């Protein structure tokens, strides 16, 4: 038997896109807005989701899929808010694989969901490469992380339609130029919608929640 | 021709370990201490290296290999301190691959280096799985990231012999229980050496620098 050359990367990518199309069909069938929330570990994704649940209460029905390498700490936090939640543990995977999301969706009552927030594994590289059929990709960047991050991780900033600048209450205590990061983000993605926010003070949360609600309205027309 | 089953993951891992052994040999031949510095994006790795260069000046000769997906921003920062530095751009890779480190070493004068600091790509998942032949793996965790991180990313905390708790100057402004994180880290890795530090105030930098200097002394005996 001779050597066999297998274009593994290409095959994986095609499979990921086919999987994403299946997920997109599930979201469309249930008339829900799927939000893929990506960031570094510790940017405040879970806290942002908790704030959104409050801001959208009575307007939109939220469900959450949590993705972590290990533990169900985040799902336990979300569950206290009385919304549907399912925890994915990816084990060694640095992103939520589409097949795991498909399994998770089977455990939720999607007929009673308007906005599904998928909190991806904390990572600025891997989740950028794996579409989950989402309507909106949101990248969160906390002001403690450094304003050069869009330049260092261009793919995730290019493929996210919204940028959540989190923890702006900490701006007085860190070296972080909001203007620099906004310029860098727009150079990579001119259409990006940028929201400055703090889950501690509540600043900017309502505007961000309104944008997601409007995107759901537009989808279900 | 029938189907062929290829244990890709296993083959990749064996190759990575063989590559790491080669690197270990290079470090031993040059009697230098290799430090693999890992963390989330924005935990303050580059700033910590800058502080270490100052703290070790006149005692140990430092060289730095910077790893980022894109840009040479970090190498430019380090170069200003007058030490040898080489920037690796990994493009789509979420960690420094051993072969790229090997190439980088060829561009440094290793005969005049005591401590080589390798700043890995900002990521708590991928770098944990790829040994670089290092003598010491240091995981940095900033106090803005959340004290549950050792539970969520156990592999990187288990395989790191030192934990640098960075940005402790921000403790008054964030919800972060240093006791919790130390307990979680020691549950995963009882032998871990924990250093609380701030590159802004300088607190803890000297103790951490002394530890690295002592590890180099012990290696070259």
Q: What keywords describe this structure?
A:
homodimer; 221 residues; alpha/beta; Rossmann fold; seven-stranded parallel beta sheet; 7 strands; globular
Structure in words:
- Two copies of one chain form a homodimer.
- Chain A has nine helices and seven strands.
- The first copy, chain A, has a seven-stranded parallel sheet, sandwiched between helices.
- In chain A, helix 3 links the parallel strand 2 and strand 3.
- Chain A is globular, with a radius of gyration of 17 Å.
- The first copy, chain A, is of the alpha/beta class and 221 residues long.
- At the A-B interface, helix 6 of A face helix 6 of B.
First and last CA, distance of chain A: 58 Å
Main beta sheet strand tally, sense and closure of chain A: 7 strands, parallel
Shape of chain A: globular
Rg on CA atoms of chain A, Å: 17 Å
Question: Which blocks of ≥5 consecutive residues of chain A have pLDDT under 50?
Answer: none
Strand content of chain A: 15-25%
Total DSSP E strands of chain A? 7
Give the oligomeric state of the chains in this entry, treating copies of one chain as homo and distinct chains as hetero: homodimer
What class, by secondary structure content of chain A?
alpha/beta
Count of all domains of chain A? 1
